[in-house]
Amino acid sequence: MRKSFPFLIVFIVGMISSGCTWIKEVPESNTVRLMTIGDIQSCEKLGEIKTSVLDKVGFIERDKETVVENLVMLAKNEAVKLGGDTIVPASNLKDGEMRFWLYQCAER
Known about the structure:
The protein is α+β, with helices and mostly antiparallel strands. It has helices at residues 4-17, 64-82; strands spanning 33-34, 44-52, 56-57, 60-61, 86-89, 97-104.
């Protein structure tokens, strides 16, 4: 058991830092659009979504692109639950957190 423990630690850290994710897409989240504020026209603003994930494990930082992808997926999942169809980044990535504005752009 003692000989396999260091291997297990290295394996877990490797999986986490490589961008492996356990965030599951909710049904219909793939229909939620990620847009910029300049793309929003005649949309109803529904509110704001704050998402967060781990941006580092111990002293090992996760890939920023993967962290942002995880945050966007979480925001899209939440948008579905809240009845929106479009999200717009409202902040930059900071300490594993991002905020998004939620909109309803398509007619219901």
